[in-house]
Amino acid sequence: MWEQVQETVSFIQNKINFTPEYGVILGSGLGSFTEEMEIVYTLPYNEIPNFPVSTVQGHKGALVFGTIGDKKVVAMQGRFHFYEGYSMKEVTFPVRVMKYLGMTKLIVSNASGGVNSDYQVGSIVVLKDHINFLPEHPLRGKNDERFGPRFVNMSEPYSRKMIAHASALAVDLGISINLGIYLGLQGPTFETLAEYKMVKILGADCVGMSTVPEVIVARHMDVETFGISVITDMGDAASIDTISHDEVLEAAKGAEPKVRQLIRELVLTY
Ligand code: HPA
């Protein structure tokens, strides 16, 4: 995989002379973030060698290069989910590529279901930790020490410094945030009521189907990581009857301006 990553990095560097400091993975709830960027170059995934091939027709996916103030950013517009059938190596390949393009800080966003009763639809959760309940691990198999160590220290999956900085920014901006724990499940089904209860008992505040693999691989390569989630539905008896993908997207859109603003300021000032 090392050679594949380097080949992809060389391909991109031949197209554009750009060293991004920040990588941003745009999940539901941050899709329009590229509007905060002065876009320099857009590279569709299907033109990038070794990138996973999307089987979904009309699937939007691109690496978007640009600046926010004096900060250089590469954004993933569209991510790869394990439930779509990609291997964990495929799901996380773009994170490795961004690292060798120069990324030292990764910001990951997603939509999730809330199981903390303090939350409501539209709540913004800054991730302080996660629980990995996905059935495959991106680092399983022979370890390549050039990427990072065999046994990765996960004491700080999400940068405490970035969390503190973002928390202070949120106060200044008048944006209410929560600090919470994300549990990653395979999906693609939403959880049953019993499963949402399980998630809560296990100690998490929200549950979703992404993020954990990308964060593990970022930490493998010692990339500083920040995660943010929009609660798009509540996993309780009163709420789960109506959950659908459309509802998730709509709820995520509602919180999007605030998430965008917070991430923009974080990139500018951290
Ligand atoms: N469960 C899993 N993934 C999700 C949810 C949920 O309730 N909401 C948004 N993504």
Describe this structure in words.
The structure is a single chain. The protein is an alpha/beta fold and 270 residues long. The chain has a single domain (1-269), classed as Nucleoside phosphorylase domain (Rossmann fold, 3-Layer(aba) Sandwich), CATH 3.40.50.1580. It is 31% helix and 24% strand. It has six helices and nine strands, in the order αββββαββαβαβαβα. The protein has helices at 2-15, 88-101, 160-173, 193-201, 212-220, 245-269; strands at 22-26, 38-44, 62-68, 71-77, 105-114, 124-132, 178-184, 206-208, 224-234. A five-stranded mixed beta barrel has the order 5-8-7-6-9, surrounded by four helices. Helix 1 packs across helix 2. The model has no long low-confidence stretch (mean pLDDT 94). Hypoxanthine is lined by residues 111-113, 190-191, 207-209, 232-233, 235, 248.
List the main descriptive attributes of the protein structure presented here:
270 residues, alpha/beta, Rossmann fold, five-stranded mixed β-barrel, 6 helices, globular, binds hypoxanthine
Give the SSE map.
Elements: H1 2-15, E1 22-26, E2 38-44, E3 62-68, E4 71-77, H2 88-101, E5 105-114, E6 124-132, H3 160-173, E7 178-184, H4 193-201, E8 206-208, H5 212-220, E9 224-234, H6 245-269
Parallel strand pairs: 1-4, 1-5, 5-9, 6-7, 7-8
Antiparallel strand pairs: 2-3, 3-4, 5-8, 6-9
Helix pairs in contact: 1-2, 2-5, 3-6
The structure holds hypoxanthine.
Residues 111-113, 190-191, 207-209, 232-233, 235, 248 line the site of hypoxanthine.
